[in-house]
């Protein structure tokens, strides 16, 4: 009865929370398996792998908490929501991985200078191969779910499990070399290589976290928005510029300036702005918050304006300037540059 209630409560949780909880449970189980493998083998490479897996447990716990925070609705103190905490989670995880890598590198260097025998490597290889397969499967599920639901936390956690699986496979290879050669130096050398590998990947995760927190441009998303505006472009949308896309976890905040005929009424302008907002919102599965600032046109834009039967046109239409990533992100009306340049 209790197990049924637990299963029901699990499936009642949001999807991202379920995946984060899965990661935490798997990490706890596998770190226990790896330390048992180390007790059997006393291998430095296995110890390195087990120590790195402790980070999995801490990081998965923080990831679960960050996903809970990111799911909270907007409030007075967080008018854009709580999604940014997912980038903080990735940075926290990356920082832990980096520190673990430094420590692992140090202990591996000591072991290389003072090698010791490895016991029962066959058992160690079997247990580690099992954990590698579990980590690969769980990591694949997390990365796929994170990309589908635009969760940096799940993607980061899944990639960390990939990293853990690679570390485990290297440890297995080191034990295999020890078995066939009898030289325990391979064990310490593998741990040393893993230390460097872990440090580099920890740095990359921190770098990705800083990019998100600093609102670094997501080129692919901006190009997607520009392509949709260009494809469904209306004559009344004379120009778009100062386009900015900011990601708050899974959600997007988009704002831009749209030039429209200066003689439009407030109601007409509002209608066109609403059409733009609906167009962009329909293109993304996540929540989109869009703000469009309407600018009045001037006569310098006439030669690039396709507005039919315009009552105030001063110049005949000559050519339409395509909207591209290069010109829509600038804080300037690019028609004026073309006409006056």
From TrEMBL:
Pfam families cross-referenced by the UniProt entry: Cation_efflux, ZT_dimer
GO terms for biological process, alphabetical: intracellular zinc ion homeostasis
GO MF term (any one): cadmium ion transmembrane transporter activity
Keywords: Membrane, Transmembrane, Transmembrane helix, Transport
Compartment(s) where it occurs, according to its Swiss-Prot or TrEMBL record: Membrane
Superkingdom of source: Bacteria
Topology with respect to the bilayer: Multi-pass membrane protein
InterPro entries hit by this protein: Cation_efflux, Cation_efflux_CTD, Cation_efflux_CTD_sf, Cation_efflux_TM, Cation_efflux_TMD_sf, CDF_Transporter
Positions of the Cation efflux protein cytoplasmic domain: 221-297
Transmembrane regions: 21-41, 53-73, 85-106, 126-145, 161-182, 188-206
Keyword Cell cycle: no
A cellular component term, taken from the record's GO annotations: plasma membrane
Keyword Nucleotidyltransferase: no
Residue span(s) of domain Cation efflux protein transmembrane: 21-214
PANTHER family for the chain: MITOCHONDRIAL METAL TRANSPORTER 1-RELATED
NCBIfam families to which the protein is assigned, alphabetical: CDF
Family membership noted in the UniProt record: Belongs to the cation diffusion facilitator (CDF) transporter (TC 2.A.4) family.
Protein name (record): Cation diffusion facilitator family transporter
Organism name: Hymenobacter luteus
């Amino acid at each position: 009865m209790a197990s049924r209630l637990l299963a029901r409560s699990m499936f009642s949780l949001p999807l991202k929370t379920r995946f984060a909880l899965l990661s935490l449970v798997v990490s706890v189980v596998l770190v226990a398996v790896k330390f048992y493998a180390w007790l059997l083998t006393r291998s430095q490479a296995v110890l390195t792998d087990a120590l790195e897996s402790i980070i999995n447990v801490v990081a998965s716990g923080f990831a679960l908490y960050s996903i809970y925070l990111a799911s909270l609705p907007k409030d007075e103190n967080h008018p854009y929501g709580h999604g940014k905490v997912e980038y903080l989670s990735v940075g926290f995880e990356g920082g832990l991985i980096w520190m673990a890598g430094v420590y692992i590198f140090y202990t591996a260097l000591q072991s290389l200078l003072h090698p010791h025998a490895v016991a029962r490597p066959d058992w160690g290889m079997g247990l580690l191969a099992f954990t590698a397969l579990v980590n690969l499967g769980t990591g694949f599920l997390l990365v796929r779910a994170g990309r589908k639901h635009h969760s940096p936390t799940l993607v980061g956690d899944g990639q960390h499990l990939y990293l853990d699986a690679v570390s485990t496979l290297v440890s297995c290879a080191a034990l295999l070399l020890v078995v066939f050669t009898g030289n325990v130096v391979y064990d310490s050398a593998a741990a040393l290589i893993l230390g460097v590998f872990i440090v580099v990947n920890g740095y990359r995760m921190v770098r990705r976290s800083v990019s998100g927190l600093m609102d670094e441009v997501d080129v692919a998303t901006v190009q997607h928005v520009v392509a949709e505006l260009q494809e469904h472009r209306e004559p009344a949308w004379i120009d778009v510029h100062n386009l900015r896309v900011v990601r708050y976890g899974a959600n997007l905040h988009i704002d831009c300036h749209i030039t429209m005929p200066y003689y439009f009424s407030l109601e007409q302008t509002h209608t066109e702005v609403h059409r733009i907002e609906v167009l962009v919102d329909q293109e993304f599965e996540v929540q989109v918050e869009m703000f469009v600032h309407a600018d009045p046109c001037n006569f310098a834009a006439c030669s690039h304006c396709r507005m039919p039967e315009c009552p105030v046109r001063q110049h005949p239409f000559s050519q339409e300037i395509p909207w591209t990533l290069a010109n829509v992100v600038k804080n300037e009306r690019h028609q004026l540059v073309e006409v006056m340049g």
